[in-house]
Structure prediction request, 476 residues.
Amino acid sequence: MGGGGSKRKPHMLLKETLCDHSQGITCMAVSEDGSLIATGSDDKTVRMWAAGDSETECLGILKGHTQYVTCVNMYDAYVITGSADNTIRKWDATSCDCLAVYEGHEARVIRVLCNGDFIFSAANDTTAKAWVFDNPEFNDDITDTVSFYKSFDGHSLGISSLIFIPGDEDARTIEDDDVVINVDDILITGSADHTARTWSVATGKTIHIFRGHKGPVSCMSANAEGTILYTGSMDSTIRIWNIQEGHILKILKGHNGAVLTLSVVNKLLYSGSTDDTAKCWVENLDVPGISYKGHLHTVSCVKYHAGYVFTGSGDACARVYDAKSGALKAVYRAHSSAITCMNLIGDNLYTGSSDNTLRVWDASKATLESEELLDLMEDEEELEGSAPVPAKAFDEHKLKAYNGEDVDVASAQLKPPSSPHLRVPSPTPSGRSRLSPSPSPLHSAKGRVSPSPSQLSARGLLDDSKGRRSIADLDF
Prediction:
C-alpha cells in the first residue's frame, strides 16, 4: 500500500516526501518500539506507516470517522483516535480494523490517551471521560455506547489537555464493574476556563483546582515522578504546581506570546510559543536558560534528542539547535505550510504538515558544520532581519511562495512563506507515555463542527492587540 505518493529525495537532509493524505495532517503518534507511525488528517482518515531505516511505507488506512481526526494515540498493538465527529475509535494497528466506537461526547474530541485499563478522552463539551479499554469487538449492529465508565464534570469550557498519573503500586485497589482501579490513580485536565484540575479516577471527583492563569490553559506536562505539574497558558506564562498539595510553586515569565507546547526532559523544561521562540527553563530558575530563535511563525512542536532541540513552526520549517548554546544548526525546508506535528525515531525526523505531506529527514546529518548548512543559517539570518508586517488577514496565495515538492532544501534561493507574523496554532503529537502533554487550547462548542487544526493553521491567529482577536476569543 501507499507507494504512489512517496518520493525519494537525493538532498542532504530531506529523505522522503509522502503525499498519501488528501488533506492536512493534524496529529501523529509513534508505537512504543518505534516501528510504526500513525498520522491523523483533515481527510477523516488515519494512515499507518512503517518507520525505521528503510523506505517509509503506508501499511494501511483507518477509515470510519465522519469528520476530521483531531488526535491519535498508540498503545501496544492498538491505535486510539479522536475526531470532530465527537467519537473515539479503537483500531487494530495490524489489520486496521475498527474494534470499538466510543460515543458520548457532545462536541469534538480534542485529546485521547490510554493506560491499558482505560481510554481517557477530553472534548470541547467541557468534560473528560474514561472508557474501558478491553471490550468486545465492534459490531456494526451495536449502536449503544461502548464501555463507558465515568465522566469528569466540572470545567466550564472545553478541555484541551490530559495527563494520567498512575498511583503507587502498593496503594489500595478497588474493583468496579470487573475493572481493578488503584485508588491513587489521578487524571489531570487543562481547560480554556483558565484552570487545571486533578481528579480521582476511582471516584470521578475533583481533588484540586489549579487557579491563577489569566487565559486558557493551552498545554501541560509533568515530571517523570508525577509530583510536579507544568501548565502553559495563553497569558504567556508557565506555572509550576505541586500535584499532591495543589498549590503553586513558581510562575515562569519570559515568553511574549501564548505558550502552546511544553516538554519535560530530566530537570529541564522546553516550551514553544506564538512569540516565535522556543525556550529551555532550568529547574529552580525563574528565567529561561536558553532561547532558541530564528523562527518566523509560532513554534508548535519542541523535541529534545541527544543534546539537540528540534522545533516545528508555522513558518513551514523545522529546525535543530544545540541544546546548551542555543546555536542554530540546521533548517529543514520543503513544507509549503505549517508543521503541525513532529517525532524523532533513530536518525529520522518525521514532520507532518497542513500541506498534506509527511516528510522524513536525516536528523543525523543536521548537526554537521558543512558549507550547505552554513548557507542555510545565513539565509535564515537574512530573513529574520527583514522588517515583519503583522498580518490582518490570511492570504492563501502567500503560502505558495515555493513548491515544496521539487526544491533543493539546501538552496539559498528557497524562501519560506511570507506574512511571518501569522500566528499558527497547531497540535503537538499525542505522546505514548502515561505522562502525555497535550496542547491545542480550545473553547466549548457543543453541537457544532469546528474548523480543523490544519484549517486553523492556514488561517493564522491575529495579534492580541487592540481591535484584534487572540486565540482565547476565537469562536471554535
